[in-house]
Amino acid sequence: MRAFVAVAMSIALLFCLPVVLPANAQEAVPASLPKELEDVISGSYSCDTWVVMKDASNTGRVMFGKNSDRLPFDCQPLMYHPRQVWTDGSTVRLEYIEIPQVNVTYATIGASPYWCYGYEMGVNEYGVVAGNEAIWTRSLKEAKSNPPERGLTGMDLLRLGLERGKTAYEVITVITQLLEKYGQWGSGEPTVKDEDGSYDNSFLVADSSEAWVLETAGKDWVAKRITTGTRSISNAPSIGGDWDEGTLPPGTNFKLHYSDFMNIETLSGITRQRKSSSLLYDYSSGDGVTLREMMAIAREHKGSIPGICMHQIPLISPSQTAGSLIVVLPNSDNELIEIWWTPSLPCKGIYVPLFMDANGFPDILSRTGKLEKSVSPAWNVGEDEFSMDSYWWLFKKASESDMDSVTRETFDNLEIGFENELNMIREQALILKRENRESEAAALLGDFSEKCVDSALSMLLKMRLPALDIESPATVNLLSVDGGITSKRSTFSADFSDNIKVKVAICDVAENREMEERTFRVLSPPKEF
Ligand SMILES: [Zn+2]
């Protein structure tokens, strides 16, 4: 059926080509498609990534956003990897190949599917942030009929770039050098074989000064520098002939020469990039894009049709949003790298704040479901399944049923509360940093993140217990006692014997004593579960 849709769309596209590809091939936003066509293809496989440069941001700080869209069981926890020094001769094992390690890998936080080394989106300690997109190119089409040696995936390239680059330019340099050396081939979709799950990649990489769009086809690539305004990418090549660096003859129009226009994902990407560009244009007018508007873009829907927030629709849209990352970059050492993340569908999620400068990372965010986090060939892993211990899966499970507007408003108010509180925490942290009390600043930020994650989880359990379908009576131990860098633990108890009651106890593990207990009671189940 999906093939049928693809063929139908491709035929339709033939009639639309003059519209989709304007005479000015540099134009980032294609002219409009027929509405009925746009409605259908906007529900296809996709990711979306966007950046707001200083001049278009309401705070004068660069902001970055990405929704990662994956197969529904592709659990995508958020990982923290500290800076690490490696001995000579060390190697790094990826899904399909093993390559030499560098002497130092920088600290990173990134969203990483349960089976792979790489990140779908992430940020490093130098304030470089990156997201990638699957793109379908003519080179990929040839590779599918004549498969090359297995190499790197786009997710591998993204994380390796962040681990090795101090600026956006350094990151794309790392990525392109690795690409030229090892190539990109190997399934990027769990349980799917290479020929069906491999794809070429584009990247949007930003630091506080500039952003780069990097688009690749096999081992070829072009890159375009962005310094002002806004920019977005989706599942289609977008760079015309005005790129700044690349492997192709000067002036080669990458979009025209390399796009596989017979592929429905390319069509979907064109329409979705147009949608995000339009939203960014609207929001950047006036006082500039706000953090709430970055979240609104991630939550965009078009009527009943899935939008940038991608929902799975059988036979039409095989994937759905697995997580959403928004990063606010610092303009100087006196500012923080502020990370906002929600698992699963952002329209049913709660963004929580995290920091590169914190003294720890809530390890519950890194938990997968029934399957352990691993580095395995995608075709060699099973489907991950729900586990109460996994923050990602709890939000994913809750997202599978409808959510009423009261719950959404409650979640919004919680997020707004986090943002308001961050305004105070930020001031305190920066004062501590200026006084060289770095460890106190780090503890302040770490405690704040822990508290927000606890609050988000408590609110999810409070408002969405029926959607979670937890058997009664149930006890959910959500944070382990010896959780590595996490110093605290929360225990949640769900008891259905008294209608719906959620008891939350926050314990100090080191002192083994209960510090706080909160009990929530929902008098009547919210509507529309
Ligand atoms: Zn949604």
Task: Please specify the SSE layout and strand pairing.
Layout: H1 2-20, H2 35-41, E1 48-52, E2 63-70, E3 78-81, E4 84-85, E5 91-93, E6 98-100, E7 104-105, E8 108-111, E9 121-124, E10 129-135, H3 138-145, H4 154-164, H5 168-182, H6 194-197, E11 200-206, E12 211-217, E13 220-226, E14 230-233, E15 245-246, H7 254-258, H8 264-284, H9 291-298, E16 320-328, E17 338-343, E18 352-355, H10 391-399, H11 405-434, H12 438-468, E19 474-477, E20 488-495, E21 500-508, E22 513-522
Antiparallel strand pairs: 1-2, 1-14, 2-16, 3-8, 4-7, 5-6, 8-9, 9-10, 10-11, 11-12, 12-13, 13-15, 16-17, 17-18, 19-20, 20-21, 21-22
The protein binds zinc ion.
Zinc ion binds next to loops.
List keywords for this structure.
single chain; 529 residues; Penicillin V Acylase, Chain A; 6-stranded antiparallel β-sheet; 22 strands; 22% strand; binds zinc ion
Describe this structure in words.
The protein has 529 residues and is of the alpha+beta class. The protein has a domain at 44-399: Penicillin V Acylase, Chain A (4-Layer Sandwich), CATH 3.60.60. The protein is 32% helix and 22% strand. The strands form five sheets. It has an eight-stranded antiparallel sheet with strand order 3-8-9-10-11-12-13-15, sandwiched between helices. A six-stranded antiparallel sheet has the order 14-1-2-16-17-18. Strand 9 (121-124) and strand 10 form a beta hairpin. Helix 11 (405-434) packs antiparallel against helix 12. The radius of gyration is 22 Å and the shape is globular. Mean pLDDT is 83; it is low at 1-43 and 472-529. The chain binds zinc ion. Zinc ion binds next to loops. Zinc ion (ZN) binds at residues 301, 309, 311, 345, 347.
